[in-house]
Amino acid sequence: MNKIAVFASGSGSNFQAILDAVEEGLLQADIQLLVCDKPGAKVIERARDHHIPIFTFVPNSFESKAHFEKEIVNELKRYHVEFIVLAGYMRLIGEVLLRDFEGRIVNIHPSYLPAFPGKDAIGQALQANVSETGVTVHFVDSGMDTGPIIEQVKIPVLPGDTRETLQERIQKAEHRLYPAIINKLLQKDIIGGIVQ
Ligand code: GRF
Fold first, then answer.
1. Which atom of ligand 1 is nearest to the CA of 43?
2. Contacts of 127 (CB under 8 A, 6+ apart)
3. Is the beta carbon of 152 within 6 A of some atom in ligand 1?
4. Is the CB of residue 13 below 6 angstroms from any atom belonging to ligand 1?
5. Ligand 1 in contact with 117 (CB < 6 A)?
6. How many Å apart are CA 115 and CA 128, to the nearest integer?
7. Annotated domain spans of the chain
8. pLDDT, tens only, 162-173
């Protein structure tokens, strides 16, 4: 199991970390496809630079989530993708993708879940004035950041932290953690927490 697709909507710094880890031999995976729901996103440039096939789409131009997810599933099958990595994909995964891939979809979230799920987890942590937050990698189910947790690290919130400084500390941890965990899951053939 090493053919993966990465789903992203934005800058793609985690996508870049995954690409770099593959190129350095730290992550044994073939990135078959980038799936992106924002045709202008920076992550698309990164994929292009590395000659990774891209499937980009405009969600509003489809009748429903089921319709665009069917298209995504077709693309994933075309590339024989076995495992999906969400890296800043800003939408809930629907039943069409879950039907074929549940247990084989992971996500990274910038908080120590179950604290601060959903949008702007970093802003939520600052607002709550906590002394630490974190990063969580989890399997994806139909909820908002609710799937089984695979691994978490704690990150301190320091006095005087701004959104930028905290985000930088969190992303540094993400870039180290995510490729390593993906590699472990793929090498041990772990689907939905169960070794196959
Ligand atoms: C990351 O912080 C990740 O935890 C969250 O979205 C952000 C994506 O950042 N799910 P990037 O596009 O990988 O830079």
1. 12
2. none
3. no
4. yes
5. no
6. 10
7. 2-191
8. 999 999 999 999
For residue 170, how far is its CA from the centre of ligand 1 (angstroms)?
10
For the record, the structure tokens of 47 come out as: 């994929």
Q: Where are the beta strands (DSSP E) in the chain?
A: 3-8, 30-36, 54-56, 83-86, 105-109, 132-139, 149-156, 190-191, 194-195
CATH architecture, domain defined by 2-191: 3-Layer(aba) Sandwich (3.40)
What is the Å distance from ligand 1's center to 14 Cα?
6
User: Is 0.90 surpassed by the pTM of this model?
Assistant: yes
Tokens (6 digits) for 78: 């075309």
Express each pLDDT in 39-59 by its tens digit: 999 999 999 999 999 999 999
The whole-angstrom separation of Cα 98 and Cα 58 is 20
Residues 70, 4: Cα–Cα separation, whole Å: 18
Query: For a pocket test of ligand 1, which of 9, 14, 155 has the largest count of ligand atoms closer than 8 A to its C-beta?
Result: 14
